[in-house]
Amino acid sequence: MMDEMLLQERLDQFKPEPLIENDIDSTKENIESYVIQEDENNIDLAKTNFLNLLNNEEIQKSCEGIIRKYGVGTCGPRAFYGTTDVHLKLEQCIADFLGMEESIVYSYGFVAISSSIAAYCKKKDIVFLDKEANFAIQQGVLAAKSKVVYFDHNDPKSFRNEVEKVTKTERKPTRKFLIVEGVSWKTGKLLPLEEFLKVTEDHKIRIFLEETYSIGIYGDEGKGLTEHFNIHPSRLDMIIATLESAIGSIGGFCAGSQMTIEHQRLSGSGYIFSASLPTFLVQACMESIKCFGDKPKKLRSFAREFHGFLEENCGFIVESDPDSAFKVFTVSNEKFRREGEEMIHRYCKDKGVHFIVKENGLLINLNVVLCDDEEKLQRIYHAIKTASSLFETSFH
């Protein structure tokens, strides 16, 4: 047997190479973080509580009843003691809501996106991807090891050009996939879905639509881009989304044909190996969908009003779609853009109006409840307008 001193010496000498390169300089200690206390002095525009369902007492009571019956977790993956009748009801609820044959629910939104992509796209396949594709999509394609062909952001002409280039040069037909976001996580721009569908149908390309920031917002019933553009869901191979934005819970789902979904029950790593979504959170999703009502329509109207305020009253450049529930915007002065954004963010934070400053601009997540709270809304408008005026005075 190896003595303890020799073992410890060898352990000390063991310095394995990292599995991936980490080029991030920031540490946990120097990343700014703080808790927003939602009260009369603070307004939270950072949280993705678009339809105000996180504060719904009826949903909370329903979840409490589920906890008393099922406990707080199943302690197992879906295929191993992790599936309850409530999980199956949610999957049917989502499929019926979106007009798809079936759906599958994952316990984590990020994994729902990445796992569903990796379950279908393989090494020999070609995946067409937007240059601004979100991180979850990129990780799914990375896991699949497929060949990736990028096209310009939300540009169907650029997509068609790339498809035609690939078609001309390939020696034999190859499986092709298009993976797009209904509303971009990065820019908030709306996908011109019909134009992309024309290309995929012309060239027999499978299309996966990621709808995290469009379901619950677009379409009068909140069904997303298919309802918004009056497109039959059967024209899409798969709709993927997290349950962590408008629906206000945890997890994610994929919806599609019976064959498409059944394949994931055997090939979706996040479904097979992760503990299932706690049953009370499953219940929260079902209750949230029932509570949509006229909220999507009301929220889009508010989003357009807020969009106009940012552009016309404050002079900001707003990148996101007018109907988008989250606003990505920046100052018009490119020379002092970063300094201006940080100054505006800091000023509003001091005034109790909290939102996010990112690399590509400022980000505000709207809440439909603000439509009926004129006092809070005017506080938001006043803080942002004053901050923009101070920036113009300081940096003009």
UniProtKB/TrEMBL annotation:
InterPro entries: Aminotransferase_I/II_large, AON_synthase_class-II, PyrdxlP-dep_Trfase, PyrdxlP-dep_Trfase_major. Gene3D superfamilies: Type I PLP-dependent aspartate aminotransferase-like (Major domain). Its EC number is 2.3.1.50. Pathway: Sphingolipid metabolism; Lipid metabolism; sphingolipid metabolism. It comes from the Eukaryota. GO terms for cellular component: endoplasmic reticulum; membrane. The keyword Membrane does not apply. GO terms for molecular function: pyridoxal phosphate binding; serine C-palmitoyltransferase activity. Its cofactor is pyridoxal 5'-phosphate. Residues 45-335 form the Aminotransferase class I/classII large domain. Belongs to the class-II pyridoxal-phosphate-dependent aminotransferase family. This is Serine palmitoyltransferase 1. It comes from Phaedon cochleariae (Mustard beetle). The lineage of its organism: Eukaryota, Metazoa, Ecdysozoa, Arthropoda, Hexapoda.
